[in-house]
Design goal:
The chain is built from nine helices and eight strands. It is an alpha/beta fold. It starts with 29 loop residues before the first strand and ends with a helix. The protein binds manganese (II) ion (MN). Manganese (II) ion (MN) binds next to loops.
């Protein structure tokens, strides 16, 4: 990694990897798996360009962070899924255009399998994995893989939406069904703790109250809850699933389905600080639904405000995750 010439406080080398680092994936403690995918977006598109935009914006992120210190020292690398994912994505988008819901569902299922296998492989090689979506449905396979390797885990979901629909617009792997699918498919998930939810259907509301695995801290209740109370139902090992729309829309103005309200930047920080301070271990995480401004040219993706926020949150998620590992 050219330790002698590497200056963590200096500008990123344009040819460098995520956060301006050059650590090969084989030597990194944490790999960030890009999942450019938005086959079932229901409102505004763009999140398939999220990973690329975050990668570009990551070159502006300070490697010293007041909350998480210097996680880059343990090695963080950017990795891509199998090239088939891109062709499946193109096929899914055109199937969607011609109204072939069955084909969309089949291709989305293949996406889930590809992500699940990739995450499992990296975990098998001793890496911790952070998934960078793409729409939130890209996280289903990642959580499945994590639950297989860590039975009994909890999921901490930061999201404006409950994502508990059985299907949405006929799509069984919709971004609106993420947690429904995870709870149905991943037996290893013991608990789902939702934070920031403020936009949901009546059936989702009923599901929250009828499934003993689900505990939801609605956005409207956060002012009277401590993070300790919010986090209390979680077991020791936790996957953090972060849909950027859980944050205030001012932090993600171009996300697919923005909703008023949401967590402030300092609240996300203090929530995740509290999670790590409680002694729980973050076994992996996803960051989804970050979307650059529409029409932004390729070479200007890194200037996107959404990506600037996303890249900083990604660095902190990496930092909290690494810090939470037992020595
Ligand atoms: Mn979501």
């Amino acid at each position: 990694m050219g330790v002698n010439s590497f200056d963590p406080d200096g500008p990123a080398d344009p040819g460098s990897g995520v956060f301006g680092l050059c650590t090969p994936a084989e030597e990194a403690a944490l790999v960030l798996l890009a999942a450019p995918w938005e086959a079932t977006v229901s409102y505004r598109g763009g999140t398939a360009r999220g990973p690329e935009a975050i990668l570009a914006a990551s070159h502006q992120v300070e490697l010293f962070d007041l909350e998480v210190g210097t996680p880059y020292e343990q090695g963080i690398a950017w990795v891509r899924p199998k090239p088939e994912l891109a062709s499946f994505h193109r096929e899914a988008l055109s199937a969607r255009k011609r109204g072939d819901t069955e084909a969309v569902n089949r291709l989305c299922h293949q996406m889930v399998e590809i992500i699940s296998e990739a995450v499992d492989e990296w975990m098998g090689q001793g890496r911790i994995v952070g998934l960078v979506g793409g729409d939130h449905s890209t996280a289903v396979g990642a959580m499945e893989a994590a639950a297989r390797r860590n039975p009994g885990i909890g999921i901490l979901q930061i999201d404006a939406h409950a994502d508990l629909r059985e299907a949405y617009q006929g799509y069984t792997n919709s971004h609106a069904s993420v947690m429904y699918n995870v709870l149905k498919r991943a037996e290893g998930v013991a608990r789902l703790v939702q934070v920031g939810v403020r936009d949901l259907g009546e059936q989702e509301y009923d599901r929250i109250h009828s499934d003993p695995r689900i505990v939801c801290s609605f956005d409207r209740d956060l002012h009277r809850l401590s993070w300790e109370e919010v986090l209390a139902p979680l077991p020791n090992s936790v996957w953090v699933s972060c849909d950027i729309d859980g944050l205030e829309p001012s932090l993600c103005p171009n996300t697919g389905t923005p909703v008023p309200g949401g967590l402030r930047w300092d609240q996300v920080s203090s929530l995740l600080n509290a999670l790590v301070a409680s002694g729980r271990r973050i076994v992996g995480f996803d960051l989804c639904e970050v979307s650059p401004a529409p029409g932004l040219e390729q070479e200007r993706l890194g200037e996107s405000w959404d990506a600037a926020v996303g890249a900083r949150l990604l660095y902190r998620l990496a930092g909290w995750t690494l810090r939470s590992q037992p020595n």
